[in-house]
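Q: Here's a chain of 276 amino acids. Please give me its 3D structure as tokens.
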Amino acid sequence: MSEVAEMHKTPMLYGIDYEGRHFNEYLICYSTIPEQYINPLIPYAVDNLGDQFYIFGYDYIWPHRMSKRIIEQVEENDATISGVEFAPFGVLDYTQVLDRIEQSQANVLMLILPGRDGFRFLHQIHQYQFSRPIEVIAFAADETYLANVQHEALDGIYTALNFFSDLETQVERDFATQFRQMHGNDSIVTYSTKSHYDLIYLLKQAIEASESNDKQSIMNNLENLTLYQGKSMITLRADHHVALPMHLGQFQGDALKVVHSFGIIEPDDQRWVTNE
């Protein structure tokens, strides 16, 4: 998709997670990338949850890149990787995976398995009889999980995101309130809802700063923009990635609650990092 954007010299606004390390003149990434998730999370997890980590995720580039960052940060924080494995889409029975987690002696599971397979896995891990408590951190697990996974299976699971509808800061509270006023009180507000909304307003800033509606003129102004202030500030940098406020949430009963805020996390400049 970014190649097509470059071919036609048309800005492409991308508002969902990916593995990072991609720069294109016409690609704008409002995306949480691995270092924004992992760098603040691992020290917190080692201090508060456990120090033996098991990584389980899908077998494609995003979980692999997330896994590599987890391993680096776990080692930097003098903790242990007890196991790493990846699975294809569509697995129906995770019993053997759960057996290996049990045998590993890990006390923190890093789950990189969003979507329907992740829902299935969480049901199965809830029913599995471990010999010890295991904390689960499920990446990209947002408010949609509350409608797709039994609350008993979700209870206690952690997730790190750049936005939660439970946040009490003024910007986030107003956004969630206004969204529900427009779309109904039962509407699910997630971090990807917020990222796409913010992208429109970043584009608005670039259009207003341009001398014409020429695509290249607009593209030239889609750098070093900010939205909001203080703890809610987001900054679209020269590498076309966004410095984002990051938070840790936990599923508690029928809600997803914020339990810790990490502050605004600046990733590496994505123009210069390697693709290894």
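Q: Can you summarize the key feature?
A: The chain has nine helices and eleven strands.
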